[in-house]
Write a structure and sequence with these properties.
Glutaredoxin, alpha+beta
Length: 82
């Protein structure tokens, strides 16, 4: 199971990022646990300045804007963050 955190305060881009990750995971048969991180102090702790941010297994893999479907597929396919 991949542990994924989506960092953001609840904007539409953050919600769309969560939905995209969950959709791709379901389509690929990859088990994920998606956690929403909304506290500003927690988000800043990852060193990102624009949201949404995506953290996989403790590593920041994306910040700012909804990631592309291709990018999400790569994260879930490789078994490690890219």
């Amino acid at each position: 199971m991949k542990n994924i955190k989506v960092l953001g305060t609840g904007c539409s881009n953050c919600r769309n990022t969560i939905k995209l990750i969950e959709t791709v995971a379901l389509e690929r048969g990859v088990e994920v646990h998606v956690e929403k991180v909304e506290e500003i102090q927690d988000i800043m702790g990852y060193g990102i300045m624009s949201t949404p941010g995506v953290v996989i297994e403790g590593q920041v893999v994306h910040a700012g804007g909804v990631p592309s479907r291709q990018k999400v597929e790569g994260w879930l396919q490789l078994g490690t963050p890219s």
